[in-house]
User: Fold these one by one.
Assistant:
Number 1:
Amino acid sequence: MIHVNEHYAKLQASYLFSEIAKRVKAYQEEHPDKPVIRLGIGDVTEPLPPACIEAMRKAVDEMAVRETFRGYGPEQGYAFLREAIAKNDFQARGAKIDASEIFVSDGAKCDTANIQELFDTKLTIAVPDPVYPVYVDTNVMAGRTGACRRGRYKGLVYLDSTQENGFVPALPDVPVDLIYLCFPNNPTGATASRKQLTEWVKYAKKNKALILFDAAYEAFIRDPKIPHSIYEIEGARDVAIEFRSFSKIAGFTGTRCAYTVVPDSVVAYTKKGEAVPLRPMWNRRHTTKFNGVSYPVQRAAEAVYSDAGKAQTRALTDFYLGNAAIIRALFEKAGFPVTGGVNSPYIWINVGKDSWKFFDRLLKRAQVVTTPGAGFGKMGEGYIRISAFNSRENVEKALKRIAKVLK
Ligand code: PLP
């Protein structure tokens, strides 16, 4: 008899964004004359930078000619892209990362979801609350948790991110093996200082734990004091895996390209306590289950590191940060405590009450879609997340409508 993976039944029935979509659809059907503006899901709106388009077109032309056509590429990514990544994203910041430690993939979502396969099913896992749901749900699916009660899975250690701790959680008071961190954070927009990341690296070293560091929003950091990579912290090479994405820096959400860094020195342990390097394990997993990102897409990603690409992606992220600044200013002026929107495309607003109610209020009275904080975890209750990913025209229109509602 074929048995089902019963751990799936523990997953929360209504995934956040499907519930939002349901409510928006219902509202639109009732009010077809009132167009809604979406500041909810963190998808980008602006087209790919011209440097990426040009590189992609050229690569497509190469694919049309027998002499330059390419079939399967290396599963880990082409050397031209891995080398550009290592040089520009790490070595230029003083982080010793080699091209051989970079694994190009089709998304930070897949990588943050799949990485847990490398680890034992019996682990103590720490996740921030609020959290990017992928970290939690993939461990639920793998059977590493008990049932969900009142928004929390049994067996997980929740790291509360609150206004009091600036949404950078304190070290856990129980020993944990695997720690998910995300900075700049989705959903709170908070960033972690060098000192705070150093504490986490020290904790991981001391406890023989591993940090999974999601830096998908790194490109929005403007403050020179904030680290872009965990590898800017001494010792992190031994205890951290980092995830990056071209989705938000260069508008690749539909094009799909990302990468994961697994340094040679990062290890996990057998039950007998022997250290096992994770890079060969991830290489084995990647080459067995993944067949590489398409050549034109990798060429487009490489163009992000050209002079033109750097200027264009800077302008793109500056543009979204401009949106973030005006969204943040409106809510601050209205007296709401606000985090993010600086060094981050997300604005996290303390609305002081039921976050789904506030979501409904903005949907029904301002026709603006936001994301209720409660969907990201227990600690997200009382907050909403607004995303800066939209045209300036739409953001300004949305803010005018919200201002009227908040009066
Ligand atoms: N990590 C975080 C924290 C995200 O918010 C997202 C997307 O919204 C991702 C990863 C996914 O990135 P990708 O588009 O590369 O799959």
Number 2:
Amino acid sequence: MCVDSSISVSYPLGTTPACEKDAKALEFIEEMTNYCDNVQKNVLSEILAQNAGTEYLQQWKLDGATDRETFKARVPVVKYEDLLPYIQRIANGDRSPILSSHPISEFLTSSGTSAGERKLMPTIAAEMDRRQKLYSLLMPVMNLYVPGLDKGKGLYFLFIKAETKTPSGLVARPVLTSYYKSDQFKTRPFDPYNVYTSPNETILCVDAFQSMYSQMLCGLIYREEVLRCGAVFASGLVRAIKFLQLNWRQLAQDIETGYLSPKITDRTVRDCVSKILKPGRELARFIRKECCEGNWEGIITRIWPNTKYLDVIVTGAMAQYIPILDYYSGNLPKTCTMYASSECYFGLNLTPMVNPSEVCYTIMPNMGYFEFIPHDRSGNNDSVTELLDLADLEVGKEYELVITTYSGLCRYRVGDILQVKSFHNSAPQFKFIRRKNVLLSIDADKTDETELQTAVENASELLKEFNTKVVEYTSYGDTKTIPGHYVIYWELLVEDPVNGPSDNVLDQCCLAMEESLNSVYRQSRVADNSIGPLEIRVVKSGTFEELMDYAITRGASINQYKVPRCVSFTPIMELLDSRVVSVHFSPAPPHWTCERRF
Ligand code: AMP
């Protein structure tokens, strides 16, 4: 899609593009958002023409039609489970055009799960360029608001994760792993606005400790040049600071001696970091002085004094990390630049310096074809009625996002609930409200109510021989600990208190719950260390009655009252915590391997 030269761009008051390249990118955004509906019409027509010969589209008898009306009338709205048989065939080696006429280049593993495993999203090579295009728009927008970012570096903690292969040999990995390993990322041309402290080799090291250690070391070495600090999600930056708290002694020693710790065994990492690391007495002394007293307030601005903002997503489930980031950074601005998923990259934030509570994302209409199911807050969303287009949405209303992609997903429910806040030209700007059905999320994990219920049931099996039952439970994502962890409140019915379950049995119940949770949870526990051991807090008998009484005093209907399966409201937490009789933690990590069941 080329830039329309008749578009005139009006920049926010007092701002101008940083360079010619930025001006072009901003013009592109203006064009896409001015002609939102037309672009969407063309995107759908392109996708349908491209994939007309696929088995999936053929069955809906479009007969070559590429218009919206026929598409909407004939193609159903689907969920992952509806597509699973097609996806499984691709994974097993069927190379016929099933969902996409272009060859499937790899599977992207979403953090959403199905039957306990990450969802597999087939993708095609051309999607990488589309993602790259969206990335290329981020800095031109940021440069409007924060000048001078070409005068220093970005300290970004970026990681790859283990990948696996499908039975037919296709790679399956998270979308960011795929991006960081791509030529688009590895051999990106020099751009003064996108210079990172972390060399590619440190990002591409699959060992989580060595990758974090070497990235932190480089960040410390370049500390005065750092102008922005970030990670993809807030949980990643919080984890990096915790890493500094645990490893500053060794890091300072490496800097003092100019010799990299023997814990870093990866040859490529050693080679590239050794070129950067020089003996630096002064810097080592400074790091020790800042870290030795265990005062972590404002640590980001003390160590990296020229940081202008934190570049991390703090919308959605990540909002829980805002207080700790404010504490670490002395309230530096937090910018949420982008909204994306494994299925499709969606859009960007055109006013990145606003407060997290005001963040809106503008879906770029060139990325895919987007439809919206009006979302009913009262929960009556089972019957899907009419789906709306990007240009038809109304300010203030909530919608569930449905996508049709070049890779072959057709009318696929992503599961995100968005609210229209305003329009940029004719493109709606969305507040991210929440992910449907997610009860607990600490890092990339997304645990729903059914998974939690199954985990409680499986763990309760261990209580049977002690004539004990879990009569009620609820949960809480505790991010005051670093890493955060799941807390499950249990009210027990112990029929024979003399022979009730011991502490050891309840500890084992914690582990049994973890073993039952999905593979993203277990990977975060085992490989990434981004979630701490699960905790069960046993509460006094009668506590959940009190919880109901409390809800009723606040206006809940006695007939319709349901125990909330996740809590975060402070008075409720206080009530629960004041009734705790014993606390138990998982004694070991659950099982996880990067191999998956196909
Ligand atoms: P995944 O499929 O693992 O790539 O995760 C994608 C999901 O992460 C999206 O569908 C959202 O639920 C969530 N997500 C991505 N970007 C944002 C954002 N900027 N703010 C809030 N949630 C986000």
